């Protein structure tokens, strides 16, 4: 049961009506997710916000105008402001001024969910710092779409974004993720994806399971699955074009050897019981508690 909130108005139902048949967007910054390929993937709520917001901002105004034209949404004299990495410092004050006037400002990424590898991050932080409300109209996301079709574990994942361009920096960067206990998700340019996959195989292990998704939701959508070694070989056989997401499974190899377990147990057995020492080490190293407890018992006997 939802408790009333004096600041936010009456409680809402799980599916609240929003849009022309319900209400206009509230004053504040509205981040609108846009399709990553198929124009029909935009949500009805996203269309409502684009139709009713008093100020529109977009990473690429041409892309947003095209999307609005497809869905029959007129600009109707409203300002449409380009906001991207190269002009953010100059344009942000204008959008913040509109928010200060109590207007509903909609920001749309070029494709996908704003703030995910997107310049909207600084805009959102600035709006929050100025005390304005920030809303999300959720929708398409290349990260989640790729994770959905990959077949890799989705219970825990880490979105790492784009790797560095140079080989040395890229390898060093990739190595930081080697022991992360989660599915790793990367973006990469088709110009560098073969080199990136080669470095992934080198730093994470050529036998690590991985998936390459290309042109998700578009006409030439493709999903390649296999080990990192398989994907590297596949690049030689069939060059890759288009928007790319690379996913890598978590490491299945043991992270710690027997000497690591014994060293950790030896330290804790000086101040803890066998049971407590085993529990602490098992938690720290991510190992089965029973296995560590048996080892602790053997060390006590020795």
What would the keywords be for this entry?
302 residues, alpha/beta, Cobalt-precorrin-4 Transmethylase, domain 1, Methyltransferase, Cobalt-precorrin-4 Transmethylase, Domain 2, 5-stranded parallel beta sheet, 5-stranded mixed beta sheet, 10 strands, 39% helix, globular, disordered N terminus, transferase, 4pyrrol_Mease, rRNA processing, methyltransferase
Tell me briefly what this model is.
With about 300 residues, the chain is an alpha/beta fold. The chain has helices at about 45-50, 60-70, 90-100, 120-130, 140-150, 165-175, 195-205, 230-235, 260-270, 275-285, 290-300; strands spanning about 30, 55-60, 80, 105-110, 135, 155-160, 185-190, 210-215, 220-225, 245-250. The longest helix has 13 residues, at about 90-100.
């Amino acid at each position: 049961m939802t408790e009333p909130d004096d600041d936010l108005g009456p409680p809402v139902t799980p599916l609240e009506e929003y849009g022309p048949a319900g209400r206009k967007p509230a004053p504040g910054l509205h981040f609108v997710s846009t399709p990553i390929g198929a124009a029909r993937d935009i949500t009805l709520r996203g269309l409502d916000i684009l139709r009713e917001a008093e100020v529109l901002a977009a990473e690429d105004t041409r892309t947003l105008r095209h999307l609005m034209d497809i869905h029959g949404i007129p600009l109707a004299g409203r300002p449409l402001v380009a906001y991207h990495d190269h002009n953010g410092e100059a344009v942000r004050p204008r959008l913040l001024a509109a928010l200060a006037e109590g207007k509903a400002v909609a920001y749309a990424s070029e494709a996908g969910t704003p703030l995910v590898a997107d310049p909207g991050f600084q805009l959102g932080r600035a709006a929050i710092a100025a005390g304005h409300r920030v809303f999300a109209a959720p929708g398409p996301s290349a990260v989640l779409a790729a994770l959905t079709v990959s077949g890799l574990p989705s219970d825990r994942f880490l979105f790492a974004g784009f790797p560095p361009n140079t080989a040395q920096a890229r390898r060093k960067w990739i190595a930081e993720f080697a022991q992360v206990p989660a599915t790793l998700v990367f973006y990469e340019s088709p110009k560098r994806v073969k080199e990136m996959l080669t470095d992934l195989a080198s730093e994470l292990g050529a036998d690590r399971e991985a998936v390459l998704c290309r042109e998700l939701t578009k006409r030439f959508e493709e999903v390649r699955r296999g080990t990192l070694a398989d994907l590297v070989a596949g690049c030689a056989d069939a060059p890759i074009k288009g928007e790319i997401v690379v996913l890598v499974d978590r490491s299945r190899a043991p992270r710690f050897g027997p000497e690591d377990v014994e060293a950790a147990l030896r330290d804790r057995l000086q101040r803890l019981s066998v049971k407590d020492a085993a529990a602490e080490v098992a938690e720290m190293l991510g190992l089965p508690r029973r296995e560590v407890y048996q080892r602790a018992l053997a060390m006590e006997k020795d």
